[in-house]
Structures are given as structure tokens and as C-alpha cells.
Amino acid sequence: MKDLLLLFRRFIPPYKFRLAKSVLFNLLHAVFGLFAISMLVPILEILFGGNVGAEVEETSFKMDVEGLKQLFNYHMSRIYQEQGAGVTLLLVGLVAVIATALKTGFAYLAAHEMIYIRNGVVRDIRRDLYAKILSLPLPFFSEERKGDIIARATGDVQEVEISVMSSLEMLFQSPILILVTLVGMFIFSWELTLFVIILLPLVGLLIGKIGKNLKRHSREGQDKMGELLSTMEETLSGLRVIKAFNASKQMNERFSRENEAYRRVQNRLMRRRSLAHPLSEFLGTVIIVIILWYGGTLIINGTGSLTGPMFITYIGIFYTIINPAKNLTNAFYSVRKGLAAMDRVDDILRAESSVPEPEHPLRISDFSRAIEYDRVSFSYNGLARVLDEVSLVIPAGKTVALVGPSGSGKTTFVDLLPRFHDVSGGEIRVDGINIKNLSTRDLRELMGNVNQEPILFNDTIYNNIAFGRENATREEVEQAARVANAHEFIMQTECGYDTLIGDRGGKLSGGQRQRLSIARAVLKNPPIMILDEATSALDTGSEKLVQEALDNLMRNRTSIVIAHRLSTIRSADLICVFNEGRVVEQGTHGELIARDGLYAKLHAMQGF
């Protein structure tokens, strides 16, 4: 249970006062429950013995357990002698009813507190997980399957809620009930209770042995579910390609194999888990029979302090241990399964960022001089270099275009500037400050991005344009849309700026989606703009409108433009030609054409 204690240590402290109240209420619940069952002794004595307790002097009582028993018996015997058996039975029953009412009331109060703890902890895990996902750098997600991350954030957290948090009440209630009941059993007969205590650890060892591998099988099952969800996510994303290549049978076979593997793992897991209840019930019956034999022997031989009514009540008290023991056993199995899911969640929560924040970041709020790449190198996972000692100065207010063959390092070059990745060698400076010494928030606040594939959200047009800009006014959003040549088509939609655009903007055309992403960048109004092949996927009509919007966007800004269509960057202040991770040429369009190098060849190929 070490892992469970660590989990509680991480997430329970904010709810420690509620937990303390729950423990107190559970203790009172157990005490009054034990007292209610103890009322069986006088009832049985009246029914079978014709008397209650023993007559002793009232002044001889001591303030200990035995003294309290004698005091109770004294008053019961007085009532029995003065009022008769009927009245005594009624009074004993009334005391039992009051004790039971208090028992159930405290049980409700304990459960009430535990509800807040359970739901609060699950909320905290989801919140921490989502915040961690947002904070992790892009390289983390390029190495993980999206479907598996979704499985951890949904299915695994749900498994923690079902298996661990739903067992939380049992884990804090059952041990208290068992402990208080054992104390009561000691009061009735310490000889018989010692015998019981010797039996219980043997039962616990047997149950523990059966559940030993449950956590491992649970982890395997959660991994298989992650693979299933990954396949489902890939299928939904690539449905057009699957249908176009008639690959439905191939994908169906792949999914069926993974689904069958998950079924087999779950079968093994559920067989072990289903064994918990019948096993605990069987072992409980075995213990009851052994106790009946041993306790009966003590009474017959007269070697113990037990009487017949006390022994029957003792058996009744012991029966109250069985349900808490069963609940504790089931909770033990559930927790094992849930902790396996928590391990998968922790793989994300404890992931180290490859783009660490500086301990004492420098502040920057504006950009006025230059961006400097100083002998910058980069490689993924220490393999072949994607960039090899690239040096470049981008003055403020200038437009720099990056061209070159696919895979030459252009996108990696611009991704290093907002620290989506960290350089492997060299450094990048903004206004003379190494970007590693700036907080990523301040650094990225200086930049806007327009990508080849516009990234939109299943929300209204207004909220997509205002995304990332708090307290944007309606007038500012509309003005940004006009600059991006988007206002006219927006007003033609069903609800204007309040129109929902569907998943990833699926209700809009490619050109319309791109103009919304440009409007979003315009509204942010950053001093540095990064454009990654923003028009390469558009038709001629859409490209003209988008290019006009981009020209409006880049006006009076520092712009870094990646382009395949060289006609779109003829007027750039500087064109850098990339090839195999190096800048092999740079200059204006006219200078590069006159040089008759790689740029001229690329230009001639597009002209052809």
C-alpha cells in the first residue's frame, strides 16, 4: 500500500479537515453500532435467564470497562425487579433504537465528508493533468501517440475515480469499524478474541497472494486501451485516405487484433477481481465455524468468562466485522487496479520538460533591434543534425523569407525562436538577450503565428479570432477581420460572428479558415510574425485574398516567412536559401537570380 499512501500524501492535504471529520464520524458510527448490538445481552438474559445482571452495591462501581458493565447491569436488574420483564425489554429496545439512529446518522455524516474529498481529488488530478499537458513542450507529443495521451487523460483518470476514490470511504471506514469491533470483542472475551486475531492475518496473507499480480495486469490493460484509442484516433483523422485506398479491411483487422488482446487481458484481470467477494465470504464462514467451536468449548468447560447470552452477542458482534472486511478486501483489489491507471497518469504528470523555464527570467515587453541566430545547431534525440551552425541576423521591421527543398530545416529554424524546441548548440538572442533567459510566456507574447494548416477550434468565429486575447472588444475583433479580408464572408454566415464553425473549422473553406487565423494574429498585434507556408494549400482565388491579408498583417512588422511559392516573397528584404540544414545563399530576389545558384534553379523550376 506504499503507492496508495504516496497518492494520499500528494492529493489529500487540501482536504485534511474534512478527512479528520470523516474519521471522527466513522469512529462514533462504530462505537454506537457496537453499543446497539451489545443490547442483545440483557434481552437474551431476560428471555432465557429470567434475570438481568447481578445485584451489587452501587457504591462498589469503578470507572473502568468492568465497572461500567456492572453499573449497567445494576440499573437493568433494578428496573427488571421493579417494572417487570416487559418494561425492561421495551427500555432496552428503545436504547438500541437510539444507538442505531446515532450510528446511521454518523455514518451519513462520514460519507457526506468523503464525497467532497473523493470528487475534489479527482478534479485536482484532472486539473493537474490538463495543466501539465499544456506546459509540456512539443517534442513530448511527437514521441507519444495522441490516442494514448487521450486514454490517460480520460479512461485512466476515470479508472482512478472508480477504483481508488470510490474505495476511499471503505479504506477510512472499514479499519475503524474492525478496530472498534475488536475492542468490543476483547471486552466480552479476551481469550476468544486473541484466537480470532491469530486467524485474521492468515486470511489476509491468502487474499494478498491472490491479488499480488493484479496491479501488473491492470497496467497492461490500460496500455492496451491506449493502443485501441490511438487506432481509433488515427482512423477518424485518416478516414478519407482509408476509404480512398480501400484499406478498410486492413484497418478493421488491425483494430480487431488490438481489441482481442485487450479482451484477453481484461479476462485475466476480472477473473482475479471477481474472486475477492466469494473468497472473503467463504473464509468468513470458515472463521465463524472455528469461533463457534472454540467459544463453545470455553463455555462447556467453564474456562472462560463467557455466558451463553454473551457468546451469542459476541458472534453477532463478530458478524459486524465481516462486511467491513469484505469491503476492505474489495477495496484492496480495486485500489490495485486503480493504482496501475494512476501510474500511467503519473507518466505525464512527472514528465520532465525539455524546454525548462529559467529560474530567474529576464523581462521583455517589446522588440526593437534584432533577432540573432548565432551558430545555431539542432538535432532530434541526438541523431543527425537538422540545423548545422546557422548564423543569421534579422533586423527589426524587416521581412526575411526562408526557401529551400523540403527537409532542409526551414520549419525547425522558426520553431526554435518561440522555444517550441531548444537549440542543441549556439544561441538565439532577441534584442541581445538569450531567449533561454526569458520566460516562454514573455517570449511568445512578442510573436504571432500563421501556419500552413490553420488551427481553429469548435467554437464561434468571434471566439476563434479573440483566442488568446483577453477582454477583446467586438470592434477590435471586427477590425482584425477586415484587415484579414474576412469580414465579408463572416457576415454572410448564418449567425455572423456568432456562427459555430465545427470541428477544426470544418464548416469553412480552406481560404476562409486561413483568413480567420490571420485575423487572430492581427488582433494579437505582435511585433514579430512567423508565417509557415500560409498560402501553399490554397487555390488561386483564395490565395489572392489571403496574400492581401498577409501583406496587411506584415506591414510595419518583423516577419519571417517560409514559402514554397517563390512568387509570394519577391519583395522580401532578405531571402535565405536553406539546404541540408545550412543557409547556402542569401540576398534579395534580384541578387539571388543573378547569382544563378540554388535559388535561381528553384525559381526556374517553378516558372517552368
What would you note in describing this structure?
The strands form two sheets. The chain has a six-stranded mixed β-sheet with strand order 6-7-8-3-9-10. It has helices at 2-11, 16-38, 40-49, 65-83, 85-135, 138-143, 146-164, 168-188, 190-210, 214-237, 239-244, 248-274, 276-301, 308-349, 410-415, 440-445, 461-465, 474-483, 487-491, 510-524, 540-554, 589-595, 598-607, and strands at residues 370-379, 385-395, 399-403, 425-430, 433-434, 447-450, 528-532, 558-562, 574-579, 582-587. It is 63% helix and 10% strand. The longest helix is centred in the N-terminal third of the chain and has 51 residues, at 85-135. It is of the alpha/beta class and 608 residues long. The model has no long low-confidence stretch (mean pLDDT 80). Helix 8 (168-188) packs antiparallel against helix 9, helix 8 runs antiparallel to helix 14 and helix 9 (190-210) runs antiparallel to helix 13 (276-301). It is built from 23 helices and ten strands.
Shape: elongated
Return the structural class: alpha/beta
Main sheet: strands, sense, barrel: 6 strands, mixed
Percent strand: 5-15%
* Sheet with most strands: strand arrangement: 6-7-8-3-9-10
Q: What's the mean pLDDT score?
A: 80
Return residue spans where pLDDT drops below 50 for at least 5 consecutive residues. none
Task: Spell out the key features of this protein.
elongated; 608 residues; 4-stranded antiparallel β-sheet; 23 helices; 6-stranded mixed β-sheet; alpha/beta
Topology:
Blueprint: H1 2-11, H2 16-38, H3 40-49, H4 65-83, H5 85-135, H6 138-143, H7 146-164, H8 168-188, H9 190-210, H10 214-237, H11 239-244, H12 248-274, H13 276-301, H14 308-349, E1 370-379, E2 385-395, E3 399-403, H15 410-415, E4 425-430, E5 433-434, H16 440-445, E6 447-450, H17 461-465, H18 474-483, H19 487-491, H20 510-524, E7 528-532, H21 540-554, E8 558-562, E9 574-579, E10 582-587, H22 589-595, H23 598-607
Parallel strand pairs: 3-8, 3-9, 6-7, 7-8
Antiparallel strand pairs: 1-2, 1-4, 4-5, 9-10
Helix pairs in contact: 2-5, 2-8, 3-14, 4-5, 5-7, 7-10, 7-14, 8-9, 8-14, 9-13, 10-12, 10-14, 13-14, 18-20, 20-21
